[in-house]
Amino acid sequence: FLIGYSNILQQKGEITQAITFASRALKITDNPNFEREASRLLARLYKISGRFDSAYYYLSIYIVANDSLKNIESIQKMADLRTEYEVGQKQAEVDVLEKNTLIKSIAIIGLGIILLLAIWLVAMYYYNLKRSRKLSVALEERRILLENQSSELKVKNNKILSANEELTVLNEAINKQNEKILEANEELTVLNEAINKQKNEILDSITYAKKIQAAMLPPEQYFHEILNDVFILFKPRDIVSGDFFWIKQVNQYVILAAADCTGHGVPGAFMSMLGMSYLNEIVHSREITQANQVLNELRKQIRNSLRQHGQAEESKDGMDMALCVIDEKNNTLQYSGANNPLYLIRDKNGAPELTVFKADRMPLGYYQGSFKTFTNKEIQLEFGDVFYLFSDGFIDQKGGKDNKKFMSKNFKDLLIKIHQEPMREQKKILDLTIKDWMGDTSQIDDILVIGVRV
Known about the structure:
By secondary structure, the protein is α+β, with helices and mostly antiparallel strands.
């Protein structure tokens, strides 16, 4: 450390201080290397300071120290060489001993391996001998088993031959039966062709009946000419329908009806044509314009036509109907219903309110109870009122995830939700809603909904 610090002082030009620290290092060291370095540093420092006598003195000390170190290194090298020679001699002796030991070990291991191979060969001989005896016993047992199986197979083969003979007899009987079946199939084909021909004739007749029914139903354009803002959603279940709609104007009165006849398809279609004919007679010819009186007269005509006098064996056909009469002059609406209600939606204080005008619980036609006159309900209309006439087909349609009926509550909520939409848009929404509700479920009844905005 003192020698290094003295070198730093020399570089800084502080020669006196450097001499002091270098002298102190020389006094306190007993290491030849440090002594040599310190004396060389002092010789250089005194030379720089111009004190050549002191420089010569310390240079002499450096030379002596340097020679001593070289003598020590030479002695050390000789000692190292002698040590290496002695170690080499010993190592050679050790290598000879290890080589002899390895040769002995290899000989011992070789003898052990030969002994183990001999033992293994003897053991394998006895093992194979024992195994050969077991295989001989197993082969003998297998031979006996195969002989037994061969005997059993012969017995089974004889049984199979007998069964084949029986099957041959049965096959002949089956072939005869197949011939009879083919003959029966030919007869069924002829019958099927006759049935298809009859079916096509019936379908042609029903399709023609649809044209007749459509001709008797008032065109939707006629509704728009009389009522302006109106829609009709009409979805028959079959080719012809048991539901029908009807409209007629007599003076200042517009008579509008939505009917649901007993059954659907052809029977319902016959009843619908009967109902439209009688309505034309009652309203157009006789000019009866009071809603309940129209229903009373219609019930009388239907009962007389179907000869219904209250007997159990009589025809039980009839129809349900919601009928209303709009007085365009006084802006009133009469309503009378046979099982089918009327819904009216009116905005009160900015919120829609749906009012249900209930029908009388009796049909137009067969009825076991006592016949009473139908109730006539009069309603004062306001601008923006929307009312709906309908059959039960929409409400009773099954569908949804649980295959349940649509129900009147859902129908009411839907009407309240869409009542402010244009009537044409309301029809589209109702149609899409019932289609989505049905999904893959078949339509179970005719569907009819009529909406009118005042």
